[in-house]
Amino acid sequence: MTYPRSQIAPPDEAGFFHVVSRCVRRAFLCGTDRYSGRCFEHRRQWIEDRIRFLAESFAVSIYSYAVMSNHFHIVLSTDPQEAQLWSDEEVADRWLRVFPGALSRTTDKKQRERIAYALIADPKRHQQIRARLGSLSWFMRALNEPIARMANKEDGCSGRFWEGRFKCQALLEEQAVVSAMAYVDLNPVRAKMADTLEHSDHTSIQARLSERASDPPNTKSELINRPLKPVAGLDANALLGMSESSYLDLVQWTGEQTHPLKRGKLKAPARKYPPDILWSLAKHPKQWLRRVQGTESRYYRAIGSAEALMAKAAEIGQRWMKGVSGERARLLLRQQTE
C-alpha cells in the first residue's frame, strides 16, 4: 500500500532519510549497457555533481551517497526550520540558482534584479518557495527531473526515465543513520564494482578519503579527531560524537565481512575483532552486520529500534512496521550476550 510521502517525511519537520531512485526501461546511468552496447559512465558524474550543487541551495545535509549502474542512494537530513531563518533575498537567490527560469535567458543585471524582486514582492509565492527549499520531495524533484531530461535527450526518446516515486526510509535514530551510511558507501563493493573504498567511484566515502589525502590537517591528532560531518550542504554536529576516522574504520571492517547474498567484499583480510566504535552502535557484531546488510530487505518505511519503529507506526496509523521482529530478535541476542 502506498502511503503519502508526508507521513514518512513530514514537510515541516527535520529528519534523516535514506532515499533511492531507480531507472526504468533497462536504462543505465553508467558502464556499458549490455542490451545496447553503449557506455553511459559519464552520467554518474551528472548525478554526483547535481547532488552537491543542490546541497548548496536546499536546507539539507548530505551524509552519504553512491551512484550505481541504474540507481543511486543518498543518506541526508532536511531542516525546514533552517530555511525559515534565511533572509528574503537569500531565499530568492537560492531558488533562482536551482530554477532560473527567465533568469537563464538574460545577462542584464537590472533585469535579473527585477526577476528576483518579483519573487520577494509576492509574499504568498515567497513563503511557498521558502517551504520548498526545506522539502525532501522538492530536493529529489530538482535532482531527478534535469537528469531525466538530459538522459532522454541523449537517448533520443521521451517518457519516464525514473521508476515512479523515489523510495524513502525514515532513519529514526543516529545509529540507524550510521548503518544506512555504511550500507550506501559499501554498495559498489557489494556489487563487485570496486574492491577498495578508494576505488569506489562516485561515492561519498571516496570523496571523504580523497579530501583527507589532498588536504591533510596541520597535525595528526586533528586528522584523527576530525568529526563525522556531512560531505555537502548545511553544517551539522558530528553523528553520535563520532570521528570521521572511526567511521572510515567501521566501514572498512564492515566491507571486509562476507555477505551471503552478495558477490563482493573489500580486498583485505577480514580482521578478527571489530573496531571499538562498533560497540557504541550495537552490542554484538552480528547485530550491526544484520542491520547494515538488511537496510532495504529487512526494513521498509523506517529504520530504527523496535520501540522507535512502533512509535513511527502509531504516528502514521499502523499497528506494525516491517523491521520490528528483526529488531526484537537483535534485542534478544544482545541480552543473551550480556
Can you put this structure into words, describing what you see?
The chain has helices at residues 5-8, 42-55, 80-84, 88-98, 109-120, 123-132, 136-155, 174-185, 187-190, 204-214, 220-225, 244-256, 285-293, 306-315, 324-337; strands at residues 15-22, 60-67, 71-78, 167-171, 232-233, 302-303. A hairpin with a 3-residue loop joins strand 2 (60-67) and strand 3 (71-78). Strands 5-2-3-1-4-6 form a 6-stranded mixed beta sheet, sandwiched between helices. It is of the alpha+beta class and 338 residues long. Residues 201-222 are annotated as: Disordered. It comes from Wenzhouxiangella marina.
Q: Could you name the key traits of this structure?
A:
Alpha-Beta Plaits, 2 domains, 15 helices, alpha+beta, 338 residues, six-stranded mixed beta sheet
List the helices and strands and how they pair.
Layout: H1 5-8, E1 15-22, H2 42-55, E2 60-67, E3 71-78, H3 80-84, H4 88-98, H5 109-120, H6 123-132, H7 136-155, E4 167-171, H8 174-185, H9 187-190, H10 204-214, H11 220-225, E5 232-233, H12 244-256, H13 285-293, E6 302-303, H14 306-315, H15 324-337
Parallel strand pairs: 4-6
Antiparallel strand pairs: 1-3, 1-4, 2-3, 2-5
